[in-house]
Amino acid sequence: MLEKDRISYFYDDNLGEDCPVFDNLFEFCQIYAGGTLDAARRLNHKTCDIAINWAGGLHHAKKCEASGFCYINDLVLGILELLKYHARVLYIDIDVHHGDGVEEAFYFIDRVMTVSFHKSGDLFFLGTGDIKDIGEREGKYYAINIPLKDGIDDASFTRLFKTIIAKVVETYLPGAIVLQCGADSLARDRLGCFNLSIEGHAECVKFVKKFNIPLLVTGGGGYTKENVAKCWAVETGVLLDTELPNEIPNNEYIEYFAPDYTLKVPNLNMDNLNSKTYLSSIKVQVMESLRSIQHAPGVQMQEVPPDFYIPDFDEDELDPDERVDLPLFTRYNTAWPLAGSTCHNKHTQDKQIHRDDEYYEGDNDNDHDDGTR
Ligand SMILES: [Zn+2]
Fold first, then answer.
1. Given 93, 151, 237, 362, which residue has the most CB atoms within 10 angstroms?
2. Active site residues
């Protein structure tokens, strides 16, 4: 997609089409986006090595546009938080739809590599995610798209997934991984058209976990809801190294799982339209793209914005003239790549206007005490 088209697409207002407004929409966004942000913060502070937010993974939302049932892109927010502590973040998406919102957010930079496995085709939502879309400018080769056809089964999908992800991790050396586990890639999904069993889907989660790299796992799409619940239950077990019994124990939602009351979602008897030749050509193109990356990109030392912080008071109710001291953490061992000095938030600005004895030219002083500019 041309940059010009990307920008106009970026600002289109899609609210009301497939993104209905409903009661407590803002609170809904706060809960799922806050969950992903908190997950990232916990990984950054090493209070866990794997963080899960099944409510998150709304990968279609753009900075100025809701899209495909996604209002706020919690994944982008979570990755931005991880970038405060990690030089490189790898994003992997196994939802049946293209992870376009995340790809778009990081399309021009090399500090995030996005890898999306999705159904291809112009008529399938969104029609983006062509294998030739590989990123631009500094981000060239740091977006990977694996468009697949209907009916892909466990064996074909997991083989391709493992081959590509192993090479990506070896080449890119990510400091953290974000894994979007959309369950609409399962067989029998109302919108999807792949033929994965829960075991096949969970095999991808198991494979990523084995790298022992800080891991943020989210949900995503999924439109046969009992199968979504089963899938993420099994994958929670995988992430906890716990095998769950196939029989679902009695609970208030048990009737959703009739008639067999088991965790298994078997494959369908459907044709796999992904021929060996097609999958092989996909693999060859991705490997070629990865070979263009000479080595894992480094980062320069810069000031990093403070940690994401939720005040325990309502900022709107504060007296705007009253100063409130908020914690400020400044790190210099990793870089903040995306917005440079413009990313300073309000709290940073509060800190910057502390000095009455220094002359500031414009809004920000470029003369930093540590010599950075
Ligand atoms: Zn989806």
1. 93
2. 60
